[in-house]
Write a structure and sequence with these properties.
10 strands; binds pyridoxal-5'-phosphate; about 350 residues; about 45% helix; 6-stranded mixed beta sheet
Length: about 350
């Protein structure tokens, strides 16, 4: 099998353990968690695994600066900038979000503390034309930032937004192998994985990992922002790209299990399912989940599997986003004694 170069950044294997109290509370049977929130740098998260396989490209291009883009909440931007600094590289970011008053997120505070060069792009949330023009405006700012860094003599590498690339998905192809070994050590070879889906590149890697090992494992994605068919179509593109690279047969859309009923009002907005799921995970298992990604995925897990597990183990893949969980906690209004 073809192997891609890895620049080690994570402490792996990330822990795998049972969530017996949560599993019992929701009657979902045997519930496990894969702790990619504990990958050993900053606050962990799936983007760290992706960077391990993307950054060798930057190194072979001789880059001494990393530039990327994402929302003000972006875990990818925070981890890219942090890793750049760790490696002695310069970092530049284009951060975007709705116009209006906003409290800086923990991720934004971290990158600002690092002294990262940041340009911002804002849009009017209620104006479809302003949203439609966002991608173009981000491109313009990216070009500006890159040019100014190059003028200072930097050689810039553009990290794909969200770490969504062949290399990013390949990281999760490998991560599937890591989980499967751990599950086998516990005598489990057949199970389901539940995870949050944004661009679909993490999902694609896990799906191909299961297909590549012909494992009896169902990978179930929960879309956190896009509805279908868009979410499935984008994820399918990521699956196809990796299948071609790995010489696996390309599936059709029906083979991908990606559920879009938990998007609610959209990206980063809490939902009636995410709020109690996050609270329950905190109370029963001491887990920190955010409303943007993992909270939505866990809310869906509860919805679909409550009272219906039939002994089939479920692995909830904690893809990170702990700084978003901290944003939510700090946003809560509590009295000093409450
Ligand atoms: C914490 C967390 N979980 C899940 C995802 C979704 O990953 P993907 O874009 O590969 O679907 C992201 C992406 O931003 C993330 O930060």
């Amino acid at each position: 099998m073809i192997q891609l170069e890895r620049l080690p950044l994570t402490v792996t294997p990330s822990p795998l353990h049972r969530l017996d109290r949560l599993g019992a509370a929701w009657d979902v049977g045997e519930l496990w968690i894969k702790r990619d929130d504990l990958l050993g740098r900053v606050l962990g998260g799936n983007k760290l695994r992706k960077l391990e396989y993307i950054l060798p490209l930057a190194r072979s291009a001789g880059a001494d600066a990393l530039v990327t883009t994402g929302s003000f909440e972006s875990n990818h931007c925070c981890l890219t900038a942090s890793v750049a600094h760790m490696l002695g590289l310069e970092a530049g970011l284009i951060l975007m979000g709705p116009r209006g008053p906003r409290v800086p997120t923990a991720n934004e505070r971290i990158v600002r503390r690092l002294g990262t060069e940041i340009l911002t792009v804002e849009y009017d949330e209620d104006d479809p034309a302003s949203r439609a023009d966002l991608a173009r405006r981000v491109e313009v700012r990216l070009a500006e930032l890159t040019e100014s860094m190059e003028k200072r003599g930097r050689r810039v590498f553009l990290v794909p937004p969200g770490g969504s690339s062949l290399e990013g998905s390949y990281a999760f192809f490998r991560a599937f192998g890591e989980l499967h070994e751990q599950m086998k050590q516990h005598g489990r070879e057949a199970y389901s994985i539940v995870l949050a889906v944004g661009t679909g590149s993490t999902f694609a890697g896990l799906w191909c990992g299961a297909a590549g090992l012909a494992a009896d494992v169902r990978v179930c994605g929960v879309s956190i922002a896009r509805t279908n068919p868009r979410c499935i179509d984008e994820s399918l593109k990521a699956v196809e790209r990796l299948c071609r690279f790995l010489n696996l047969s390309v599936p059709d859309a029906e083979a991908l299990d990606i559920r879009d009923g938990f998007v609610g009002d959209g990206y980063s907005k809490p939902t009636p399912e995410s709020v109690p799921a996050i609270q329950m995970a905190r109370e029963t298992e001491g887990l920190l989940l955010d409303h943007t990604y993992t909270g939505k995925a866990l809310g869906a897990l509860r919805h679909f599997w409550s009272g219906r597990s039939e002994g089939h183990p479920i692995v909830f893949w904690h893809t990170g986003g702990v700084s978003g969980a901290m944003d939510d906690i700090f946003a809560l209004r509590v009295s000093a004694d409450g």
